[in-house]
Amino acid sequence: MTDQTIDTNTPDERATWPAISKGFRCKCPNCGEGKLLHSYLKVNDACASCGQELFHHRADDGPAYLTILIVGHLMAPALHVSYVQWRPEPLTLFTIFALGCLALSLYLLPRLKGVVVAYQWARRMHGFGKEN
């Protein structure tokens, strides 16, 4: 008789893209039901629906960098095209694009924080590899 051992330490795969989609909607990356954030950018310690611990995250400055990257790559070409095409007054151009940058940044920042936390959860980074 041979003694065969089964590796029970192999973690189940967590699908990355569904988790990222849930994170973008600011929902728990595990169940998609509970809220990921409270107030504006604070991550809940655990999901109210499934109990998944979320305090392990290390989002740090990642969401801010991603927000700057995306807003800059969207607004800079739009600024150039609108200036070349219509030549609006400088104060009008500044007002429109300053408000646009602000609104887009405020919209994206919590969603990108959810994406970073969900990615860390899906890849079992920073303590997310335990049990759940």
Describe the structure.
- The protein is mainly alpha-helical and 132 residues long.
- The protein has one domain.
- It has helices at 16-24, 62-86, 90-122, and strands at residues 37-38, 42-43.
- Strands 1-2 form a two-stranded antiparallel ribbon.
- Strand 1 and strand 2 form a beta hairpin.
- Helix 2 (62-86) packs antiparallel against helix 3.
Rounded mean pLDDT is 91
**Main β-sheet: number of strands, strand sense, barrel status?**
2 strands, antiparallel
Low-confidence stretches: 3-10
Shape, per Cα inertia axes: elongated
In DSSP terms, counting alpha (H) and pi (I) runs of 4 or more, how many helices?
3
- Radius of gyration, whole Å: 21 Å
Number of domains: 1
Distance between the termini: 35 Å
Helix-and-strand structural type: mainly alpha
Strand order of the largest sheet: 1-2
Helix share bin: 40-55%
Strand share of the residues?
under 5%
User: How do the helices and strands follow one another from N- to C-terminus?
Assistant: HEEHH
How many beta-strand runs?
A: 2
Keywords: Membrane, Transmembrane, Transmembrane helix
Protein name: DUF983 domain-containing protein
InterPro entries: DUF983
Pfam families: DUF983
Give the SSE map.
Blueprint: H1 16-24, E1 37-38, E2 42-43, H2 62-86, H3 90-122
Antiparallel strand pairs: 1-2
Protein name: DUF983 domain-containing protein
Pfam families: DUF983 (PF06170)
Organism: Ruegeria sediminis
